[in-house]
Amino acid sequence: MKIVGTTKSNADDLMARVYRLNSLTRNLIATAYPNGKATTVSFYAKSIGGPECLRISLEGPFSSQTEEFNINSSWKRYEISIQNKLAVKPLKVFCTLMSSVKLHADISVFFFQCEEGLYTSSPIPPDIQLPCFAKDGEKGETRDRDIVHIENDKHNGIISSHSATVIMVAEPGPKTCQIMEDQFLTFFSLWSSKHSTEISIGISGKHGAKFVLRVHENGTDQYIESNIIGSNSKYFVCVLFDRNAITVIIDGYVAIMTNIKNCEFDKTYLGCSVLRKNDSLNGSIKSIVTYDSPLIYHRILEIYGELFPEGIPYTYEYMYRYFQYALTTDSELATFNKCIDESSFSYFIRQLDFAIPEIFNQFPPGQSFKEEDVRDWVYALLRKPEDRIHREEYSKIGRTDLTLVYAPTESEKTDGRKYHIEFKIWGRRGYKHAPSQPLKYMSENESVGVFIMIDRRASANIDHFIAIVKNNDEYPCLSIKSVPILEANLRYFVSFHKDSRYRSLRMMINIFIPIKN
Description:
Layout: E1 2-8, E2 15-22, E3 26-32, E4 38-47, E5 52-59, E6 64-71, E7 76-83, E8 91-97, E9 104-116, E10 132-133, E11 149-151, E12 159-160, E13 163-172, E14 184-192, E15 197-204, E16 210-217, E17 220-229, E18 235-242, E19 245-250, E20 253-259, E21 264-265, E22 267-270, E23 283-291, H1 297-307, H2 316-326, H3 330-340, H4 343-355, H5 358-362, H6 371-382, E24 389-391, E25 402-406, E26 417-425, H7 437-440, E27 448-455, H8 462-470, E28 477-481, E29 491-499, E30 504-514
Parallel strand pairs: 3-10, 26-27, 27-30
Antiparallel strand pairs: 1-2, 2-9, 3-8, 4-7, 4-9, 5-6, 5-8, 11-22, 12-21, 13-18, 13-23, 14-15, 14-22, 15-16, 16-17, 18-19, 19-20, 24-25, 25-26, 28-29, 29-30
C-alpha cells in the first residue's frame, strides 16, 4: 500500500491520507504491544471511488479476529476487538482489499487507533501514517487524554460534604459486555485539595459493571457498590450531600448511602478522575448542574421527570426503595411498614403537605405571633365539616396542640386513628423538652407523630433542632434519618424513639420552620 494523495477529513482543517490498496493483497499496517487482555482497533475510512470491501485482521500470539467492512464514499468509524485471557501482545494488524474485479482501489483512512479494552474512546489527534510499527513499551504516536474540570470556587461555589447536590446527565459509550475488570467509567469526580480526598461515581468493571461510589481518603480507596448495572444508555446521576451523608440516586432510584468526613471540594472533574488518568466516561455528557443545598427527594424526582419525560413516573416503589436504603434496622423498617400499611397515613401526610407550608404565608418575617396563633391557623385550615381534627383546650396541662383523627366513616369517628401534632417556638419555655409531648399521648397502636419547631432567630439552624431531638431523655432517640415522607418543600427529618411503656418504636416527623423575628 502507498499514499497517492490527500482528501478533506471529517475533522476541521485536517487532511486525511489516501492509500492505494492492491486487490487480495494482505498488508501489514500496524504492530502494537498492548498490556491488557483485550484490544480494540478503530479508524475512520471512506472510499474515493465506488463502494469497497475491506478485511481487517488482528493477530496475537494466542488468538486472532477478522472482520470485513463495507466502505462507501462517506466518512464512518469502524472498530474491531480481540480478547484473550493470556495476552494479546505482540499484536499485528493486517488489511486486505476484497475485490476480484479490479487491480486496486483508493481508500482514505483517518484517526487509526489501537487501544486497550473492548471499546473505543474518542479519537485523539494527531493522525498517524500507515503502516506504523510500535516497540514494546511504547505508547505510539498519541497524546494523553484531555482532563476537563471546573474550578468550583470560581464558578459554582465550593461544594461541601455538609450541604450540596450535583446532578449529571450522561451516556457512556461501552456496552455492559465491553467493560473490562480493570476499567472504571467515571461520570464525574469531586476533588478536595485541602483534604486530598476524591469522590468518584461511575461504572466499575471490577464490581460486575455496577454503579459504584469510590471514596479516596488518606491514601486508600473505599468502594460502595449499588445494585444497578450500567450500560451504554443515558443516565440521570445525582449525588446528594447532607451533613456529611452521601446519597447517590440513579434514574430516580436511591442506589447508595454512606458517610464521609467533613470536607470541601474545590474541583469537579467531568468524565474523568484527577488521581487515575485512565478512568474515563468514554461517552457524552449532556448536562451538569450543582446546588449549594441538599434537594429534597421529591424535587430530585421532579428534575428527573423534566429531563427524562420517557422515564418511569414517580411511584410508591421509588419511595419504598429509598426507605429500604435509609432505614437500617429491622425495627425501623417494621415501624415504617406499620405506618404505610394504614390508609389513614396517606391522608395524614396529605394534610401536612397542604397546611404546613401555609405557615410561611400567614406569618411573614418580622411579625409578632405566638405558638397558639400558628396552632389555631393550622387548625382552621384542616378543620372539615366532619370535624376530623381536634384542638386541645387551653386549660389542659401538658396538652398536645392538635390531634388529627382519621375515620373511614362518620360513625367510626371515635374509633379512628389519631395523629398528634405539637408546635413550639425556639427559646420559649420548655422548648428543649417539647419533642416528648406528642410521644406521651400516643396509645399502644399509634406509631407516628409530628413536632414542628419554629425558629425565629436571625441565624436559624436545623442542626440545633436535631440536637434537642437527639437529647430526648424521656423517649430516647435511637436514630435520625433524612427520608422523603412529605412532598412539600419543607426542611424536616425523621427520628425513631424508644417507648418503654409498650416496648415499641415510635416514628416522629420533625419539621423545621425558620421565620426571622
